[in-house]
């Protein structure tokens, strides 16, 4: 191949935001809004698994909560014909992520498993990724956090504790994905099977309203529901190509 | 470079070397001891570094008895997950269950026995040895026992079952006291009474939510706090999804609960009229000929007076809606009607729940899948007769006031906080000469104790659970310690055993672990296919490994009602305290994520935005926006909520889905002595509840208090995470029309354990 | 100047400017000490506190992750366009009235950029790693992300600072030489080094003029691109109110506008306190006023376009953000901005107003306050109102942020005060170009050289 051809090929390969023509795994999450009750178990599970800080009332009052997964509430109508729609909002791991473009030091990038990853020790804290994210699911550490001993004994050793000045967000429990891939490799170099890895939120959901799996595997749970008539993505019109697919609530005739 | 001769050079090098050496030595000596690597040549038995060890146990944060699997690393508990094999929760776990780790590692845990050296309720607790603490209590009991006055000892524990319940029974018996009470604020007394009255059943039935296609919920927040929320959530999801007609949920309540938010229809009936509404539906079902049972005449007789127009006026729900609900209930079956706190906690609570049972009966839901199934006899002890309702607690208080009680032993229950109008109760208790608490935390009740003998928390203890709410068949699980005890505490069972020993009743078990094992030996010995192990030890090991035991012994339920059951159906109008002119609103206190307040000392629970309102770290009072406007109040205005019993303060929150004549407050905040995360935060609505009793059950009618709202002039910024809770047409939560459910379903397939 | 009763001589100019450097009254020291003290107290100490405590010392939150630091950054970059306009654009158009002012304007540019760079360090969460934005070979084998507009910023601003430094230095060489020839002792040594042995030969003048023009031509597109790139920090996002193509011209116009207003302020100060009344005259203010009027009209037009397109877009996100900006919590600031930047400058249509020094001073300060408000509003209101209404929030600056804002002014003032004592703040040789050439004077009676 000539020199120019090699450049052209490299250009073709790397110009796509996701960097990869083919994702090795393409982790996807589906959330069935008809079954989600909005109980918030997933929020606490995420907090426990990922060493999320206990920010305290003052920080909450200032609007500095750190909750990688939050419940959004939307009321419809007025009393007595009133409805409440609750939707869990977390990092959508967009294949066309606006946050990845803007980080000046590449602290957030799309890995070969389709995850939007955050490299804590590369982040210099410009917070432009949080500005660019239309789902507003990125959370900044405005100060160092402490845990009143012995609460710190609960911290998960597989996840770093972030220092001040660093941005963080949902990772689809990448530490669990990593461990599952390692376990699969030890078990005869096979691929991770559907259901072997579940992020903390998916695992704890009392209604089992969430599912997590590999889109590249046509037999996985998520692949079954991805193209269904109820599947949709939030803010789809922005073409972020998110990896979190919601299943529409069902409105009924009484 | 200046000239250096050889001697100077050597001196310099020597001095330099000594200096460096000294520096190294100095550095080594001032090293933090943790920096010295200690190789784990002989690691402790229960862990390998870097590898997680999982233990199955049972969550005790509420009475559902969900099975949990706890991940531990290097002897520390890291994460609690639901046990996928346990039929109650099947791998799921609620937020409070997840927060159990913070019960274990809470900085405000009691670390050892204490004796109050100052005045009661003061800060004068001194650390003592177990011997001293136990001795103080045992000697007092001994004296009473010897004098034949064992009945002056009272035992007040939270609702325990299984082995611990048996231990308490045995202990009470050995002392010779009838005063053994289980007290939980949220015990469904009315539900038990209603099931006893209508079906003659001692135990709670199993509500088969997963197979129902039309769920009519009368104020039952079954997805969040009623009976067994995790199990119900799973069932609800199954009824909504799958290859079948989608389950329909109607929620009838004055204030929208989380279950109401998930409902297809929300019907805001007047407080306390749910039973009348149910009978209105029943009337229509019988009158329109939808019910064709042989006892139709008796029904017609007893339901006369519940015509739809009359009921519509009383309940504030249109007759059309009532008719439609009644017909759907019968035609869109299998259907199921359930009644929860909203309906039950009124002065007509038992009658309301009986009416709901009647509704189920008339629609043919009793004993069929998707309806009301009866649980078999539980395999472990569940002493219903010990559950103290409000009337019982008032009697206990009267007995205390009347100097009939000399020793009060309290185990992990907090009546000083949860009893309505609780200052009275606390005052009565202060009359008891010796109060002992076995709690793991300092709380409002433990604060007035004289001796504290702190228990292990559930993650450090042996025990077992036979969830009463059940799953339709016998189920049980053993809870085991997942970490070594952190502090100088003991398992509750061991404390009881020790006290028994010191008061002359040496029970045949050396420890709680042995006691649990023994009780399970009995289960093993009544062996049938469910145990299927060659020896007890194999059984025990597999039991701990699975984390659950079950027996597929569904009860075949054919129900014939006797005439008196039918004749007993009827609901009076609810009564309320206070004059409606002075106190225009009905206060509805409801269980929040903190449950009855027990979760308030867990920072994760304080930081979990409330599922309906997204408020954190505080209390609030929910007002309908119209009501707020009439009172010239905006969100955040601090108001006094005054009942005939007293007054508390909370900021106003505008809540679109509540009746204009009702105000609601979450239970759980307002602690004064429950640790750094709970203290001085919010207000406790239970304080101002009027002591109205549901005569049918003796339980507290917690929805029967009228209040008035008075502005204080102050304003606070309510701390909540939601910005604007309207989606401005941006279609963030999309809804599909429900015309063709089956074609549109395509749900996430759920993994369930076949029953 | 020309036509005056007492025409200025070349020597007058030299004496005045050199005196401004060499002779220092106590007022100056007081001013410098105050500025320095304020810089330390208002800028550095709060910044060190923030380094210790975290960005939490500021008022930022979720979703208001950007605040006054970024607004200040953009504001100071905007101010830096003053020098570019006066120095370069007006140089190419051969306008004579710029000649007295442009040196100070260029200094403003340089120091604004320095302050803006400081604001970046204050703004990021971990400034001790800010060097990772520079593409240097490292053991991590990581380049910065060249697709990021923030990195375009780094490149553009570095280039701009470098260019401006070279530009101002190069243009000052003949003046350094002039000062060298009139001072003794340590000053003589310093200016000898700075003037690089300038002798004033024809060749040197020719080369200087050529190099100067060359750089001037290069710096103009640089200035336009720098602020366009800064605007793309916002415009390349996809969130409402920020994702607009008008941002590049909007910011550039705004920059030139606020830069020009900044020049008016600085010129007033120089006139007053450095005794440059004969060099900076009504003519200058008159022309600056005309410039301000044009820029104000342009700015108003762009704002109208923004409002117009926002509302007719029909997009809920855009309309909400705009409505919030006009009528929400920050509405008073919005209308203050409109008053100061669109309404008040219309006074510059009147020559009476343009040629009155004090009113022009007040107007220029008002314009800059309005321009700062504009930057702040872009940041704060857009982040408050994005796509998901549930995530809407409110950001309010904290005391640390206000203090640092005041501190940037103090820092700028300090730098400028130092500047006037080192650089000749009026360009001697260019001013001389506007004067009649001197009549032949017998060599014995002249006081100095013609350099």
From TrEMBL, chain B:
One of its GO terms (molecular function) is molybdopterin cofactor binding. It holds the Pfam family Molybdop_Fe4S4. The keyword tRNA processing does not apply. InterPro entries: Asp_de-COase-like_dom_sf, MoPterin_dinucl-bd_dom, Mopterin_OxRdtase, Mopterin_OxRdtase_4Fe-4S_dom, Prok_Mopterin_Oxidored, TAT_signal, TAT_signal_bac_arc. The keyword Protease does not apply. Keywords: 4Fe-4S, Iron, Iron-sulfur, Metal-binding, Molybdenum, Oxidoreductase, Signal. Residues 52-108 form the 4Fe-4S Mo/W bis-MGD-type domain. Belongs to the prokaryotic molybdopterin-containing oxidoreductase family. This is 4Fe-4S Mo/W bis-MGD-type domain-containing protein. It comes from marine metagenome.
From TrEMBL, chain C:
Coiled coil: none annotated. Keywords: Cell membrane, Membrane, Transmembrane, Transmembrane helix. It holds the Pfam family NrfD. The chain crosses the membrane at residues 28-49, 69-90, 110-130, 150-170, 209-230, 250-270, 291-313, 333-350, 357-378, 398-420. Its main location: membrane. The keyword Transmembrane helix applies. It is a multi-pass membrane protein. The keyword Transmembrane helix applies. It is found in: Cell membrane. One of its GO terms (cellular component) is plasma membrane. Belongs to the NrfD family. This is Polysulfide reductase NrfD. It comes from marine metagenome. The lineage of its organism: unclassified sequences, metagenomes, ecological metagenomes.
């Amino acid at each position: 191949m000539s020199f120019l051809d090699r450049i052209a090929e490299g250009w073709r390969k790397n110009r796509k935001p996701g960097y990869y023509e083919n994702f090795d795994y393409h982790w996807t999450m589906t959330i069935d809004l008809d079954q989600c009750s909005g109980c918030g178990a997933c929020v606490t599970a995420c907090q426990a698994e990922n060493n999320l800080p206990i920010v305290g009332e003052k920080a909450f009052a200032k609007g500095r909560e750190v909750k990688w997964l939050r419940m959004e509430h939307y009321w419809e109508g007025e009393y007595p014909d009133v409805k409440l729609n609750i939707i869990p909002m977390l990092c959508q791991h967009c294949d066309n992520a606006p946050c990845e473009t803007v980080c000046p030091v590449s602290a957030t990038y799309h890995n070969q498993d389709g995850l939007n990853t955050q490299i804590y020790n590369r982040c210099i804290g410009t917070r432009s990724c949080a500005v660019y994210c239309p789902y507003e699911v990125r959370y900044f550490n405005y100060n160092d956090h402490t845990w009143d001993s012995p609460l710190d004994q609960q911290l998960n050793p597989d996840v770093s504790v972030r220092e001040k000045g660093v941005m963080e967000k949902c990772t689809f429990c990448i530490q669990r994905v990593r461990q599952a891939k390692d376990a699969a490799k030890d078990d005869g170099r096979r691929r991770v099977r559907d259901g072997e890895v579940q992020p903390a939120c998916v695992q704890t959901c009392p209604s089992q309203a969430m599912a997590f799996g590999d889109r590249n595997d046509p037999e996985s749970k998520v692949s079954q529901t991805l193209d269904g008539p109820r599947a949709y993505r939030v803010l789809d019109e922005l073409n972020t190509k998110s990896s979190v697919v919601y299943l529409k609530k069902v409105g009924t005739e009484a | 470079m200046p000239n250096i001769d050889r001697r100077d050079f050597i001196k310099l090098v020597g001095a330099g070397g000594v200096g460096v050496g000294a520096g190294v030595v100095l550095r080594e000596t001032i090293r933090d001891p943790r920096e010295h690597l200690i190789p784990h040549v002989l690691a402790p038995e229960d862990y390998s570094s870097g590898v997680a060890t999982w233990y199955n146990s049972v969550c005790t944060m509420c009475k559902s008895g969900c099975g949990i699997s706890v991940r531990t690393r290097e002897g520390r508990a890291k994460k609690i997950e639901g046990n996928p094999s346990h039929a109650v929760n099947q791998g799921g776990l609620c937020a409070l269950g997840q927060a159990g780790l913070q019960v274990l590692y809470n900085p405000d845990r009691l670390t050892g026995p204490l004796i109050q050296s100052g005045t009661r309720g003061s800060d004068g607790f001194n650390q003592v040895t177990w011997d001293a603490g136990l001795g103080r209590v045992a000697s007092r009991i001994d004296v009473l026992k010897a004098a034949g006055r064992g009945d002056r000892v009272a035992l007040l524990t939270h609702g325990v079952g299984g082995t611990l319940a048996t231990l308490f029974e045995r202990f009470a018996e050995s002392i010779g006291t009838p005063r053994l009470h289980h007290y939980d604020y949220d015990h469904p007394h009315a539900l038990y009474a209603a099931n006893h009255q209508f079906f003659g059943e001692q135990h709670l039935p199993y509500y088969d939510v997963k197979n129902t296609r039309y769920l009519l919920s009368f104020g039952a927040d079954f997805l969040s706090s009623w009976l067994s929320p995790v199990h119900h959530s799973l069932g609800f999801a199954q009824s909504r999804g799958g290859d079948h007609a989608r389950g329909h949920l109607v929620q009838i309540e004055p204030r929208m609960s989380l279950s109401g938010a998930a409902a297809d229809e929300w019907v805001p009936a007047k407080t306390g009229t749910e039973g009348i509404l149910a009978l209105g539906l029943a009337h229509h079902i019988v009158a329109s000929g939808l019910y064709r049972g042989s006892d139709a005449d008796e029904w017609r007789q007893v339901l006369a007076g519940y015509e739809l127009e009359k009921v519509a006026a009383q309940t504030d729900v249109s007759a059309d809606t009532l008719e439609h609900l009644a017909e759907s209930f019968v035609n869109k079956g299998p259907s199921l009607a359930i009644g929860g706190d909203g309906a039950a906690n009124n002065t007509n609570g038992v009658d309301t729940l009986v009416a709901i049972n009647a509704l189920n009966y008339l629609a043919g839901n009793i004993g069929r899948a998707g309806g009301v199934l009866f649980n078999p006899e539980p395999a472990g002890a569940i002493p219903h007769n010990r559950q103290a309702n409000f009337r019982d607690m008032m009697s206990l208080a009267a007995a205390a006031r009347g100097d009939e009680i000399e020793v009060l032993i309290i185990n992990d229950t907090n009546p000083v906080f949860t009893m309505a109008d609780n200052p009275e109760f606390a005052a009565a208790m202060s009359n008891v000469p010796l109060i002992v608490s076995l709690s793991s935390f300092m709380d409002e009740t433990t604060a007035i104790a004289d001796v504290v003998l702190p228990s292990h928390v559930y993650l450090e203890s042996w025990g077992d659970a036979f969830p009463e709410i059940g799953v339709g068949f016998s189920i049980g699980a053993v809870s085991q310690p997942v970490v070594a005890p952190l502090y100088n505490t003991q398992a509750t069972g061991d404390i009881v055993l020790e006290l028994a020993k010191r008061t002359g009743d040496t029970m045949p078990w050396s420890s709680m672990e042995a006691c649990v094992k023994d009780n399970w030996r009995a289960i093993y010995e009544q062996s049938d296919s469910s145990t299927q192990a060659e020896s007890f030890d194999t059984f025990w090991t597999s039991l701990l490994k699975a984390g659950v035991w079950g027996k597929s012994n569904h009860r075949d339920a054919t129900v014939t009602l006797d005439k008196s059951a039918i004749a007993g159906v009827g609901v009076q109008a609810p009564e309320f305290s206070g004059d409606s002119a002075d106190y225009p609103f009905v206060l509805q206190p409801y269980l929040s994520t903190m449950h009855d307040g027990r979760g308030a000392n867990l920072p994760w629970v304080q930081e979990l935005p409330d599922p309906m309102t997204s408020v954190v770290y505080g209390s609030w009072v929910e007002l309908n926006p119209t009501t707020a406007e009439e009172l010239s109040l905006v969100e955040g205005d601090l108001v006094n909520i005054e009942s005939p019993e007293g007054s508390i303060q909370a900021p106003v929150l505008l809540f679109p889905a509540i009746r204009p004549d009702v105000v609601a407050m979450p239970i759980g905040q307002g602690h004064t002595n429950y640790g750094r995360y709970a203290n001085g935060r919010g207000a406790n609505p239970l304080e101002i509840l009027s002591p109205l009793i549901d005569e049918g059950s003796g339980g507290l009618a917690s929805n029967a208090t009228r209040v008035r709202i008075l502005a204080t002039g102050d304003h606070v910024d309510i701390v909540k995470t939601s910005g604007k809770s309207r989606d401005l047409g941006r279609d963030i939560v999309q809804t599909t029309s429900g015309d063709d459910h089956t074609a549109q379903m395509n749900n996430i397939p759920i993994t369930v354990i076949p029953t | 100047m020309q036509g005056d009763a007492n025409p200025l001589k070349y020597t007058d100019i030299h004496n005045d400017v050199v005196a401004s450097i060499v002779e220092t009254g106590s007022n100056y020291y007081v001013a410098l000490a105050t500025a320095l003290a304020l810089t330390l107290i208002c800028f550095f100490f709060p910044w060190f506190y923030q380094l210790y405590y975290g960005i939490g010392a500021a008022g930022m939150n979720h979703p208001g992750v950007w605040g006054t630091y970024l607004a200040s950054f953009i504001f100071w970059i905007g101010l830096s366009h003053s020098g570019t306009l006066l120095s370069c654009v007006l140089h190419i158009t051969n306008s004579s009235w710029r000649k007295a002012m442009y040196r100070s304007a260029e200094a403003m540019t340089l120091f604004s950029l320095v302050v803006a760079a400081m604001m970046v360090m204050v703004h990021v969460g971990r400034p001790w790693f800010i060097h990772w934005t520079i593409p240097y070979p490292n053991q991590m084998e990581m380049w910065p992300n060249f697709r990021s507009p923030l990195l375009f910023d780094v490149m553009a601003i570095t280039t701009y600072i470098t260019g401006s430094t070279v530009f101002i230095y190069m243009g000052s060489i003949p003046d350094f030489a002039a000062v060298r020839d009139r001072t003794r002792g340590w000053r003589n040594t310093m200016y000898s080094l700075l003037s690089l042995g300038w002798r004033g030969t024809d060749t040197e003048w020719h080369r200087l003029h050529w190099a100067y023009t060359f750089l001037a031509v290069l710096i103009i597109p640089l200035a336009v691109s720098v602020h366009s790139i800064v605007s793309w920090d916002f415009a390349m996002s996809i969130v409402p109110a920020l994702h607009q193509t008008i941002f590049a011209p909007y910011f550039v116009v705004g920059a030139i506008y606020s830069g020009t207003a900044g020049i008016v302020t600085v010129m007033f100060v120089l006139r007053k306190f450095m005794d440059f009344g004969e060099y900076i005259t009504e003519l200058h203010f008159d022309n600056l006023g005309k410039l301000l009027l044009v820029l104000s009209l342009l700015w108003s037009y762009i704002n109208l376009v923004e409002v117009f397109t926002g509302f007719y877009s029909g997009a809920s996100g855009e309309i909400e953000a705009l409505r919030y900006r006009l009528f929400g919590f920050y509405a008073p600031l919005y209308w203050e901005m409109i008053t100061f930047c669109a309404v008040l400058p219309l006074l510059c249509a009147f020559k009476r107003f343009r040629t009155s020094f004090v009113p022009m001073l007040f107007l220029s300060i008002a314009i800059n306050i309005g321009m700062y408000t504009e930057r702040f509003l872009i940041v704060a209101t857009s982040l408050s109102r994005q796509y998901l209404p549930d995530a809407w929030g409110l950001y309010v600056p904290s005391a640390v942020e206000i203090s640092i804002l005041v501190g940037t002014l103090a820092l700028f003032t300090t730098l400028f005060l130092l500047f006037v004592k080192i650089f000749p703040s009026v360009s001697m040789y260019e001013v001389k170009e506007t004067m009649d050439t001197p009549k032949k004077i017998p060599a014995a009676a002249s006081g100095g050289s013609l350099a």
